[in-house]
Write a structure and sequence with these properties.
Blueprint (H helix, E strand, L loop, with lengths): L1 H12 L4 E5 L2 H4 L13 H4 L2 H4 L2 H6 L1 H17 L4 H12 L3 E5 L5 H4 L6 E2 L8 E2 L38 E2 L11 H11 L4 E5 L11 H7 L3 E5 L12 E3 L3 H12 L1 H5 L1
Parallel strand pairs: 1-2, 1-6, 2-3, 6-7, 7-8
Antiparallel strand pairs: 4-5
Helix pairs in contact: 1-11, 7-11, 9-10
The protein binds adenosine-5-diphosphoribose.
Adenosine-5-diphosphoribose (APR) binds next to helix 2.
């Protein structure tokens, strides 16, 4: 690991344009469950088809809204971890860097990252289901945590104050298109970077999983941080097998060690 970390630090420390792509793994050490980790992953415990599709919302809006309120309550009580803060530090060190996340939490922003690109939406951007998609507001949730779906965690979604349509979570559900502007910005940044860091994603959900490959085909060095192997291994120049909160601070410290020592 030490040799791989040293090589990765050298690449990162001399990069002029950096892209960081994150998945659920970056927030795991903040207590936010991932999706596909055995047993603990959300999809190991809950049925994605019953909770994360437009059809599911139309079939049972209270169950779906309740689930996302449960997740929002958990995220609201979570704190960014050293992995999130290391990514914010990279953005400070390399002004021309882009952070792209598949996560719907706000932990990157709370760690100080400017304008991360949310490919899969956000738990904090509800909108109504009408074509206009009027932005909606939330009640404060910090005190009242709804129960989990299997604990009867049904909560009726609010109605839009502009058109009375139901309000839905501002996330991208399975079968839905990603926000076009976000996807375009992400692809362009990946095609034009020196180094792409992919952190805590299983690399199985497209089109997000395409992004490291786009960078590799454009000549960038792709570095993966993940305790487990993933299908992305094959496009990576370096695979750092460890957790985000352990590996990223060490990587950032090593990358700019010389510069700091002057
Ligand atoms: N640090 C780094 N990586 C970790 C950590 C950690 N502490 N803990 C787990 N991981 C890794 C796992 O090994 C796994 O490869 O993070 C990955 C999490 O994978 P998923 O749960 O599949 O999450 P993600 O890749 O973000 O899912 C993509 O799928 O369900 C949809 O919309 C949802 O955005 C999500 C998308």
């Amino acid at each position: 690991m030490a040799e791989a970390l040293r090589r990765a630090a050298q690449l990162l420390g001399s990069a002029r344009r950096v892209v960081v792509l994150t998945g659920a793994g970056i927030s795991a050490e903040s207590g936010v469950p991932t999706f596909r980790d055995d047993l603990t992953g959300l999809w190991a415990r809950f049925d994605a088809q019953q909770l994360a599709t437009a059809e599911a919302f139309h079939a049972d809006p209270d169950l779906v809204w309740g689930w996302y309120e449960w997740r929002r309550a958990r995220v609201s009580r979570a704190e960014p971890n050293p992995g999130h803060r290391a990514i914010a530090a990279i953005q400070t060190r390399v002004p021309d860097s882009t952070v792209i996340t598949q996560n719907v939490d706000d932990l990157h922003e709370r760690a100080g990252t400017r304008a991360p690109i949310h490919l899969h939406g956000s738990l904090f951007a509800p909108r109504c289901i009408a074509a206009a998609g009027h932005p909606a507001t939330f009640e404060d949730i910090s005190e009242s945590e709804p129960g989990q779906p299997d604990e009867g965690g049904r909560v009726a979604p609010p109605q839009c104050t502009s058109c009375s349509a139901l309000v839905r979570p501002g996330v991208v559900w399975f079968g839905e298109a990603l926000p076009q502007a976000a996807l375009t910005a992400a692809v362009e940044a990946a095609a034009d970077c020196d180094v792409l860091l992919t952190v805590g994603t299983s690399g199985v959900v497209y089109p997000a999983a395409e992004i490291p490959g786009i960078a590799a085909r454009s000549g960038a060095a792709v570095i993966q941080v993940n305790p487990q192997p993933t299908p992305l291994d094959r496009v990576c120049a370096i695979n750092l097998r460890g957790t985000a909160a352990q590996v990223l601070p060490a990587l950032v410290a090593a990358a700019w060690e010389e510069t700091d020592e002057g």
